[in-house]
Amino acid sequence: MEKARKDLEETIHESDRKKEFYKFLPERGLPPDAILSEAELYEAMSEYTFYDGRVSGVMYTDYDEEHRKLLENIFTMFAYSNPLHPDLFPGCRKMEAEIVRIVCSLLHGGAPSCGTVTSGGTESIILACLAHAVFDLLLSVQPSRFKTHASNMLLIFTMFAYSNPLHPDLFPGCRKMEAEIVRIVCSLLHGGAPSCGTVTSGGTESIILACLAYRNRAYERGIRHPEMIVPITAHSAFDKASQLLHIRIHHVPVDKNQRADLVASAPNFPSGTVDNIEAISELAQRYGIPLHVDACLGGFLLPFMERCDFPVPAFDFRVAGVTSISVDTHKYGFAPKGTSLILYRDVSLLHHQYFCYGDWPGGIYATPTLGGSRNGCAIALTWATLLYYGRHRYTERTQAIIEAARLIRAGIEENPHLEPLGDSDVSVIAFTSDKFNVYALADRMKKMGWTLSTLQNPAALHVCVTMNHTKAGVVDDFLRDLSSACEDLVANPGLQQTRTAAIYGMASAVPDKCLVEEVSYLYLDSCYAMPAPVVVGRTLSIEGRKMSLIGGQPPVFPPSSLANATAGGPIYESNASQT
């Protein structure tokens, strides 16, 4: 485990050595230009060039300068808007309603269909489960920051609009930023070295996550029906958490001062296959069970595939038994990261998603989604993106993506060392091999500049085709390198002993999955950990940027140094020999 921890930290922190960590809140705020320069360094940490088509999924759109400029202008207008206050931001509310209506009509929802914009596919699915009252079933199965700043914010938005902290290896600067935010606030609140945490979408999510952590802790201790006690003045997010997580809540005064839903995928993530939704729908109707279709990946491809004359299985509201659909606009809808939709056939289910608490001293609290305050910029950018692309551009892009996917599928079928998995109905092509360890193929392809997604049960890989794969020569280059990598592995079995192969080999061989869970924890912990300093020393920056202790005891600076620092003088570096 110690070796695994060191390997993970070494891999994740490789880019961190280029830049010291911010560990404390600056005494003086940094000039906007300095922040922008820092952000540029963080952006440059990634070794990947996403727009050459060598990364599987992740970056679903290509570089469209006209679209980028449009999003920059929209961002300036709506950066601080909040749909939680529709009376203050009526335009934002209207945009959201139009996004929902556009996508409902795209999926043949009819006049009664409805929904909300969410932060992503995960939230969409959670909300669908909540509306369908699936949690009883799940619990029975497994308890377990004027102008200068604004202009720089715009530039930073341009840099990070499509970044995704879900992939710390592809966006190391983004991962480092989050880790520094956690460390700065921990130190601000006197958390000490062991303190830790994560960045969330808002206070409501933070509260829910805290409740989740304590609930799971209770489960671990054998407490099957956890409870929490809160004052009546506590935020209503605790009541929301109680409802979501099945924690019994007790409100105390202050002094004067079982039915389940069915789920189908269109397509599923591992193999890219669209489930037989019509058959599942018949079953759902027979037993009066709601049916949710997860079209987060295919929701902005399948509707346009029909216009390109590609065969498309029935998957949307045209299927009588489908009661809700989740669709990601930040994938093939080409909007920046952070938006998805959960759609319902009629308002009766949507009401089960809403949260309203009328007894809070802070006033009546009602929210449509998991978050309280939400980023209106995300809604504005999604709205602008839908109007920018329109049906015609979406159709053109869909045709290019599906054609590229079909070519890759055909090339894999012709490769004697590979076996396709699933039907590759949309944009994902999965494959395995009985000739060599397929995870070694992933590592081999990575050395050749290609990133593939690793799968398990069975051991396999997949490539998720994006607009970047449709550029001239990319598919041919991919298939050529894939064939070459396969030949190398067959001819040289020793090449199969790779890190990825070892990790997944261990995961499949160990019957106790708690060990696999521990390794996963090590990975996540490494994403927030601070790397050990290469040279022991201390750094003082005049802006208060890096009053960070690198090694030893807190430094004692001569009065002249402190006066110089507070006056905005030059930066003093004190190395180990001077301490």
TrEMBL record:
Keywords, alphabetical: Endoplasmic reticulum, Lipid metabolism, Lyase, Membrane, Pyridoxal phosphate, Sphingolipid metabolism, Transmembrane, Transmembrane helix
Record has Transmembrane helix as a keyword: yes
BP terms from Gene Ontology: carboxylic acid metabolic process; sphingolipid catabolic process
Compartments where found: Endoplasmic reticulum membrane
GO CC annotations on file: endoplasmic reticulum membrane
Cofactor (UniProt): pyridoxal 5'-phosphate
Record-listed E.C. numbers: 4.1.2.27
Gene Ontology molecular function terms on file: pyridoxal phosphate binding; sphinganine-1-phosphate aldolase activity
Bilayer topology: Single-pass membrane protein
Family (UniProt): Belongs to the group II decarboxylase family. Sphingosine-1-phosphate lyase subfamily.
PANTHER family recorded: PTHR42735, SPHINGOSINE-1-PHOSPHATE LYASE 1
Name used for this protein in its record: sphinganine-1-phosphate aldolase
Species assigned in the record: Ascaris lumbricoides
